[in-house]
Amino acid sequence: MVESILPVSLQNVSVRKGGKSILGPLDLHIGETGCSIVIGPNGAGKTTLLRLMHGLERASSGSVKWAIRKSEAYARQSFVFQTPVMLRRSVIENIAYPLSVRGVRRRTARATAEDWTEKVGLEYAAHREAHVLSGGEKQKLAMARALITAPDILFLDEPTTNLDGASTQEIEALIRVATEEGTRIVMATHDFGQARRLATEILFMYHGVIHERAAVSDFFDGPKTKEATTFIRGDLLI
Ligand SMILES: Nc1ncnc2c1ncn2[C@@H]1O[C@H](COP(=O)(O)OP(=O)(O)O)[C@@H](O)[C@H]1O
Ligand SMILES: [Mg+2]
After folding, report:
1. Cα Rg for the chain, rounded, in angstroms?
2. Ligand 1 probe mutation, 15, 23, 38, 48, most atoms within 8 A of CB
């Protein structure tokens, strides 16, 4: 195995859109293990931060530096969106897709995808069209498709926002296993319970920057800033 793509370092990085700054300038260092949960009010910049790190957003200034060459680093990370995108193919072909595009032989890709349908509990639906799945099933498919490449880091942007309690639990279980197996997780959520259950640390974003960064219990039991206190209390933060 080649060395990890981590740590990743963001240096004085900012994103501007439509003439206005929507992220940064900020510095952030993400090490090799753990689960960082990004929280903060709507519009704080959570999605932009994740997309920037994954290369879906361009930095207007500053830099994002991975431990290895950027082109290789992007191939060894995955992203799970709030609303998963399904290819017009079967469940198993959707799950095998990232291996196919990386040039893995068809039979090997299919066999590995079959394992993953079981790991995420979708074996009964392996040959269905992905489009007919329920929201929870689609997100489990998205998790399998994200993890099948054994990424060094997985970004998740509010992956359970549209799901019921049972599906949320299943997705959380998959995230927990991935963390335990050494996949670095960076995930945005607005669910404090979920943050407490999964996080090793909290990145609290406010107005486009990381306003507070702390271990999960330190953050919820003793936030350092007025803004984090207000946010945790559930009061409106402007
Ligand atoms: N394409 C865009 N053009 C202009 N503003 C944008 C664009 N995308 C996002 N924004 C703005 O950037 C800010 C941060 O957005 P986002 O990262 O989606 O926040 P969050 O995920 O925390 O809700 C918001 O004020 C949003 O309106
Ligand atoms: Mg968002």
Report:
1. 18
2. 48
- Using the atom order of ligand 1, give the atom closest to the CA of residue 42: 23
Cβ-Cβ contacts under 8 Å for 199 (sequence gap 6 or more):
35, 36, 37, 216
Instruction: Fill in the DSSP letter of residue 24.
Output: E
Q: Which residues contact 116 (CB under 8 A, 6 or more apart)?
A: 95, 144, 145, 147, 148
Report whether residue 58 contacts ligand 1, using a CB cutoff of 6 Å: no
Indicate the SS3 state at residue 39.
strand
For the chain, the first-to-last Cα distance in angstroms comes to: 47
Q: Which atom of ligand 1 is nearest to the CA of 188?
A: 21
- Whether residue 87 contacts residue 97, with contact meaning beta carbons closer than 8 Å, is answered with yes
- Is 151 touching ligand 1 by the criterion CB < 6 Å? no
Torsion of CA 10, 19, 157, 148, to 10 degrees: -60
In angstroms, rounded to a whole number, what is the distance separating the alpha carbons of residues 26 and 4?
Answer: 24
| Amino acid residing at 98 | P
* 91-129 pLDDT, tens digit each: 999 999 999 999 999 999 999 999 999 999 999 999 999
Architecture of domain 8-233: 3-Layer(aba) Sandwich (3.40)
- Which band of pLDDT confidence, cut at 50, 70 and 90, is reported for residue 238? confident
Domain residue spans of the chain = 8-233
pLDDT of residue 3: 85
Query: 48 C-alpha to center of ligand 1: Å?
Result: 7
